[in-house]
Design brief:
Blueprint: H1 3-32, H2 38-50, H3 52-93, H4 97-110, H5 115-128
Helix pairs in contact: 1-3, 2-3, 4-5
Length: 129
């Protein structure tokens, strides 16, 4: 194998890598787009199978500017869900004193803890807050 053939093979491998990277990005964007109907998604996918290069270029030209906006929106939604989960998980053991006292009062009224335990939990919540 000559040096030219090696470089040509390397170029072909890079081109295939980038082609598949763009193809999967387009398919991922297509499936995650809430505004596109199922029929249009099917048309895009059939076009990707029949004329892959032309369809990718047309997709990037017509819908490429909104791809980034949709990706940012998805990332923002994921971040908000993660932050809500963290707040919920952290709120179960800690949080504001009023919530801790309310939970302790619920335990007291249900009979799970005694008045002395409630008073100590209340004092701990007020001193931490």
């Amino acid at each position: 194998m000559s040096l030219g053939e090696f470089f040509w093979s390397l170029l072909v491998i890079y081109a295939m890598f980038f082609y598949f990277m763009i193809l999967f990005r387009v398919i991922g964007d297509l499936f995650s787009d809430k505004d596109t109907s199922g029929v249009m998604k099917t048309v895009w996918l059939i076009a990707l199978v029949l004329l892959p290069f032309i369809t990718i270029f047309v997709y990037l030209i017509t819908r490429g500017s909104a791809m980034n906006e949709r990706a940012i929106e998805r990332a923002r939604d994921i971040d908000q869900a993660q932050q809500a989960y963290i707040r919920e998980a952290a709120g179960s053991g800690a949080g504001d004193p009023a919530t801790q006292i309310e939970k302790a009062h619920q335990l007291l009224t249900s009979g799970a803890i005694s008045q002395a335990e409630f008073d100590s939990m209340k004092a701990k919540a007020l001193s931490a807050g």
